[in-house]
Design goal:
The complex is a heterodimer of chains A (135) and B (130). Chain A has helices at residues 20-31, 83-88, 119-127; strands at residues 6-11, 37-42, 79-82, 100-103, 109-112, 114-117, 131-134. Chain A has 135 residues and is of the alpha/beta class. Chain A has a single domain (6-134), classed as Hypothetical Protein Ychn, Chain: A (3-Layer(aba) Sandwich). The two termini of chain A are 28 Å apart. Helix content of chain B is 37%, strand content 20%. Chain B is globular and about 40 Å long. Classes of the chains: A alpha/beta (135), B alpha/beta (130). Chain A binds chain B through residues 3, 5, 7, 13, 19-20, 23, 26-27, 30-31, 33-34, 36, 130-135, and chain B through 6, 8, 40-41, 80-81, 84, 111-113, 115-117, 119-120, 125, 127, 129-130.
Chain lengths: 135, 130
Protein backbone atom coordinates (compact mmCIF):
# COMPACT_ATOMS: atom_id res chain seq x y z
CA UNK A 1 0.00 0.00 0.00
CA UNK A 2 1.51 3.26 -1.13
CA UNK A 3 0.29 5.32 1.80
CA UNK A 4 1.78 3.13 4.51
CA UNK A 5 3.89 5.28 6.77
CA UNK A 6 6.18 4.69 9.70
CA UNK A 7 4.44 5.92 12.84
CA UNK A 8 6.38 6.45 16.04
CA UNK A 9 4.79 7.19 19.40
CA UNK A 10 7.27 8.64 21.90
CA UNK A 11 6.22 8.33 25.52
CA UNK A 12 8.11 10.63 27.87
CA UNK A 13 5.95 10.97 30.97
CA UNK A 14 5.23 8.94 34.09
CA UNK A 15 2.08 6.78 33.87
CA UNK A 16 0.19 8.51 36.68
CA UNK A 17 0.04 12.13 37.79
CA UNK A 18 -1.06 13.30 34.34
CA UNK A 19 -3.26 11.68 31.72
CA UNK A 20 -0.74 11.87 28.86
CA UNK A 21 0.39 8.24 29.12
CA UNK A 22 -3.12 6.76 29.13
CA UNK A 23 -4.45 8.97 26.36
CA UNK A 24 -1.31 8.24 24.34
CA UNK A 25 -1.99 4.51 24.63
CA UNK A 26 -5.54 5.15 23.38
CA UNK A 27 -4.08 6.76 20.24
CA UNK A 28 -1.79 3.77 19.66
CA UNK A 29 -4.68 1.30 19.99
CA UNK A 30 -6.95 3.26 17.64
CA UNK A 31 -4.06 3.88 15.24
CA UNK A 32 -3.34 0.15 15.02
CA UNK A 33 -6.52 -0.27 12.96
CA UNK A 34 -5.04 1.89 10.18
CA UNK A 35 -2.42 -0.69 9.17
CA UNK A 36 0.56 1.60 9.31
CA UNK A 37 4.03 0.53 10.45
CA UNK A 38 3.94 1.34 14.14
CA UNK A 39 6.70 1.69 16.73
CA UNK A 40 6.77 3.04 20.26
CA UNK A 41 9.60 4.54 22.26
CA UNK A 42 9.81 5.01 26.01
CA UNK A 43 12.22 7.65 27.30
CA UNK A 44 12.72 9.75 30.43
CA UNK A 45 9.99 9.06 33.04
CA UNK A 46 8.07 7.35 30.23
CA UNK A 47 9.97 4.14 31.06
CA UNK A 48 7.86 3.91 34.24
CA UNK A 49 4.78 3.32 32.04
CA UNK A 50 5.91 -0.23 31.27
CA UNK A 51 7.24 -1.06 34.73
CA UNK A 52 6.27 -4.48 36.09
CA UNK A 53 4.06 -4.82 39.17
CA UNK A 54 2.25 -1.51 39.09
CA UNK A 55 -0.27 -1.08 41.91
CA UNK A 56 -2.56 1.96 41.87
CA UNK A 57 -5.02 0.71 44.48
CA UNK A 58 -4.14 3.46 46.94
CA UNK A 59 -4.35 6.15 44.26
CA UNK A 60 -7.94 5.37 43.35
CA UNK A 61 -6.89 5.50 39.69
CA UNK A 62 -7.21 2.70 37.15
CA UNK A 63 -4.04 0.66 36.64
CA UNK A 64 -3.89 0.58 32.87
CA UNK A 65 -0.52 -1.17 32.59
CA UNK A 66 -2.08 -4.57 31.65
CA UNK A 67 -3.21 -2.91 28.40
CA UNK A 68 0.41 -2.74 27.19
CA UNK A 69 0.46 -6.54 27.10
CA UNK A 70 -2.23 -6.43 24.39
CA UNK A 71 -0.06 -4.39 22.03
CA UNK A 72 1.43 -7.52 20.46
CA UNK A 73 -2.06 -8.60 19.36
CA UNK A 74 -2.43 -5.21 17.65
CA UNK A 75 0.77 -5.78 15.65
CA UNK A 76 2.57 -3.19 17.73
CA UNK A 77 5.77 -5.08 18.40
CA UNK A 78 8.59 -2.58 17.94
CA UNK A 79 8.96 -1.13 21.40
CA UNK A 80 12.17 0.77 22.01
CA UNK A 81 13.30 1.69 25.51
CA UNK A 82 16.15 4.15 25.93
CA UNK A 83 19.02 2.64 27.91
CA UNK A 84 20.13 5.95 29.42
CA UNK A 85 16.63 6.55 30.82
CA UNK A 86 16.64 3.11 32.46
CA UNK A 87 20.17 3.61 33.85
CA UNK A 88 19.32 7.03 35.31
CA UNK A 89 16.44 5.46 37.23
CA UNK A 90 18.30 2.35 38.41
CA UNK A 91 16.15 0.11 36.19
CA UNK A 92 16.96 -2.74 33.82
CA UNK A 93 14.91 -4.57 31.22
CA UNK A 94 14.08 -7.14 33.93
CA UNK A 95 12.04 -4.48 35.75
CA UNK A 96 9.82 -4.01 32.69
CA UNK A 97 6.68 -5.81 31.57
CA UNK A 98 7.36 -8.95 29.56
CA UNK A 99 5.87 -7.72 26.30
CA UNK A 100 5.69 -10.40 23.59
CA UNK A 101 4.32 -10.86 20.11
CA UNK A 102 3.87 -13.80 17.75
CA UNK A 103 5.95 -13.44 14.59
CA UNK A 104 3.76 -14.48 11.67
CA UNK A 105 6.84 -14.61 9.39
CA UNK A 106 8.55 -17.09 11.69
CA UNK A 107 5.86 -19.75 12.28
CA UNK A 108 4.21 -17.61 14.96
CA UNK A 109 7.22 -17.89 17.26
CA UNK A 110 6.83 -15.83 20.41
CA UNK A 111 9.33 -12.99 20.54
CA UNK A 112 10.19 -10.04 22.74
CA UNK A 113 8.70 -6.72 21.66
CA UNK A 114 11.00 -4.63 23.83
CA UNK A 115 14.40 -3.59 22.55
CA UNK A 116 16.69 -1.55 24.77
CA UNK A 117 18.57 0.97 22.64
CA UNK A 118 21.03 3.76 23.36
CA UNK A 119 20.10 7.38 22.90
CA UNK A 120 22.25 7.43 19.74
CA UNK A 121 20.49 4.34 18.32
CA UNK A 122 17.10 5.81 19.15
CA UNK A 123 18.04 9.01 17.31
CA UNK A 124 18.80 6.92 14.22
CA UNK A 125 15.47 5.07 14.55
CA UNK A 126 13.60 8.40 14.86
CA UNK A 127 15.38 9.63 11.75
CA UNK A 128 13.70 6.84 9.76
CA UNK A 129 10.14 7.66 10.86
CA UNK A 130 7.52 9.47 8.79
CA UNK A 131 5.22 10.56 11.59
CA UNK A 132 6.36 11.16 15.17
CA UNK A 133 3.80 11.62 17.94
CA UNK A 134 5.20 12.97 21.17
CA UNK A 135 3.37 12.41 24.43
CA UNK B 1 3.58 21.64 2.11
CA UNK B 2 0.59 20.01 3.78
CA UNK B 3 0.65 20.21 7.60
CA UNK B 4 -1.28 18.27 10.21
CA UNK B 5 -1.40 19.99 13.60
CA UNK B 6 -1.95 18.44 17.02
CA UNK B 7 -2.68 20.69 20.02
CA UNK B 8 -2.29 18.96 23.39
CA UNK B 9 -2.77 21.75 25.92
CA UNK B 10 -5.53 24.02 27.19
CA UNK B 11 -5.63 27.58 25.82
CA UNK B 12 -4.89 29.53 29.00
CA UNK B 13 -2.88 27.03 31.01
CA UNK B 14 -0.12 26.64 28.46
CA UNK B 15 1.36 28.61 25.60
CA UNK B 16 1.14 25.63 23.23
CA UNK B 17 -2.20 26.55 21.68
CA UNK B 18 -1.22 30.19 20.99
CA UNK B 19 2.02 28.92 19.46
CA UNK B 20 0.01 26.51 17.33
CA UNK B 21 -2.32 29.33 16.32
CA UNK B 22 0.64 31.48 15.27
CA UNK B 23 2.21 28.54 13.44
CA UNK B 24 -1.00 27.87 11.50
CA UNK B 25 -1.33 31.58 10.58
CA UNK B 26 2.29 31.75 9.43
CA UNK B 27 2.01 28.53 7.44
CA UNK B 28 -1.13 29.74 5.65
CA UNK B 29 0.47 33.13 4.92
CA UNK B 30 3.46 31.33 3.42
CA UNK B 31 1.11 29.45 1.09
CA UNK B 32 1.11 26.09 2.88
CA UNK B 33 -1.95 23.94 3.43
CA UNK B 34 -3.33 22.90 6.82
CA UNK B 35 -4.93 19.47 6.44
CA UNK B 36 -6.43 19.49 9.92
CA UNK B 37 -5.94 20.78 13.46
CA UNK B 38 -6.61 18.04 16.01
CA UNK B 39 -7.21 18.95 19.66
CA UNK B 40 -6.27 16.28 22.20
CA UNK B 41 -5.72 16.00 25.96
CA UNK B 42 -6.63 19.36 27.59
CA UNK B 43 -6.31 20.85 24.10
CA UNK B 44 -10.02 20.12 23.70
CA UNK B 45 -10.62 23.19 25.90
CA UNK B 46 -9.66 25.32 22.89
CA UNK B 47 -13.08 24.43 21.50
CA UNK B 48 -15.61 25.76 24.03
CA UNK B 49 -17.47 28.93 23.16
CA UNK B 50 -18.18 29.56 26.88
CA UNK B 51 -14.60 30.77 27.27
CA UNK B 52 -14.65 34.37 28.52
CA UNK B 53 -11.15 35.77 29.06
CA UNK B 54 -10.65 39.32 30.40
CA UNK B 55 -11.20 41.91 27.66
CA UNK B 56 -7.56 42.96 27.54
CA UNK B 57 -6.45 39.35 26.98
CA UNK B 58 -6.27 37.42 23.70
CA UNK B 59 -9.45 35.41 22.99
CA UNK B 60 -7.84 32.17 21.86
CA UNK B 61 -11.07 30.26 21.16
CA UNK B 62 -12.48 33.07 19.02
CA UNK B 63 -9.12 33.33 17.25
CA UNK B 64 -9.39 29.68 16.20
CA UNK B 65 -13.01 30.14 15.10
CA UNK B 66 -12.18 33.25 13.05
CA UNK B 67 -9.17 31.57 11.45
CA UNK B 68 -11.28 28.51 10.63
CA UNK B 69 -13.94 30.62 8.94
CA UNK B 70 -11.43 32.65 6.97
CA UNK B 71 -9.41 29.68 5.71
CA UNK B 72 -11.98 26.90 5.89
CA UNK B 73 -9.89 25.02 8.47
CA UNK B 74 -10.89 21.60 9.80
CA UNK B 75 -10.75 21.94 13.60
CA UNK B 76 -11.39 18.56 15.22
CA UNK B 77 -11.85 17.96 18.94
CA UNK B 78 -11.22 14.37 20.10
CA UNK B 79 -14.47 12.84 21.30
CA UNK B 80 -13.00 10.69 24.09
CA UNK B 81 -10.92 13.57 25.46
CA UNK B 82 -13.90 15.93 25.08
CA UNK B 83 -16.28 13.65 26.98
CA UNK B 84 -13.87 13.53 29.93
CA UNK B 85 -13.61 17.31 29.97
CA UNK B 86 -17.17 18.39 29.24
CA UNK B 87 -16.83 19.68 25.69
CA UNK B 88 -20.16 18.96 24.00
CA UNK B 89 -21.72 19.52 20.58
CA UNK B 90 -25.37 18.94 19.62
CA UNK B 91 -24.80 15.29 18.77
CA UNK B 92 -22.99 14.59 22.03
CA UNK B 93 -25.63 16.54 23.95
CA UNK B 94 -28.31 14.28 22.59
CA UNK B 95 -26.30 11.07 22.90
CA UNK B 96 -25.28 11.68 26.51
CA UNK B 97 -28.44 13.41 27.69
CA UNK B 98 -26.81 16.73 28.55
CA UNK B 99 -28.77 19.95 29.10
CA UNK B 100 -26.74 21.99 26.65
CA UNK B 101 -23.68 22.18 24.45
CA UNK B 102 -20.67 24.43 24.29
CA UNK B 103 -18.75 23.70 21.10
CA UNK B 104 -17.33 26.84 19.49
CA UNK B 105 -18.05 27.79 15.85
CA UNK B 106 -15.76 26.10 13.34
CA UNK B 107 -14.97 23.14 15.63
CA UNK B 108 -16.35 19.62 15.32
CA UNK B 109 -16.10 16.58 17.58
CA UNK B 110 -14.81 13.34 16.10
CA UNK B 111 -12.67 10.30 16.84
CA UNK B 112 -8.96 9.63 17.17
CA UNK B 113 -8.96 8.17 13.67
CA UNK B 114 -9.01 11.78 12.47
CA UNK B 115 -5.60 12.28 14.10
CA UNK B 116 -4.15 9.14 12.54
CA UNK B 117 -5.56 10.21 9.17
CA UNK B 118 -3.88 13.60 9.59
CA UNK B 119 -0.59 11.74 10.12
CA UNK B 120 -1.15 9.68 6.98
CA UNK B 121 -2.35 12.49 4.71
CA UNK B 122 -0.03 15.32 5.81
CA UNK B 123 3.57 15.84 4.74
CA UNK B 124 4.40 16.85 8.31
CA UNK B 125 2.55 16.35 11.60
CA UNK B 126 3.52 19.03 14.11
CA UNK B 127 2.67 18.45 17.79
CA UNK B 128 2.22 21.39 20.17
CA UNK B 129 2.41 20.65 23.89
CA UNK B 130 4.68 19.65 26.74
Amino acid sequence: MSDTKKFMYINRKAPYGTIYAWESLEVVLIGAAFEQEVAMAFVDDGVYQILKGQDTSELGIKNFSPTYSALGDYDVNKIYVEKESLDARGLTVDDLLDLKYEDEDDDWAEKDSIQVVTSQELAEILEQQDVVFSF
Amino acid sequence: MKFGIQVNEGPYNHEASVTALNFVRAALEAGHEIFRVFFYHDGVNNGTRYTTPPQDDIHIVNSWSELAEKHNLDLVVCVAAAQRRGIVDEGEQERNGKDGNNIAPGFRISGLGQLIEAGIQSDRLVVFGD
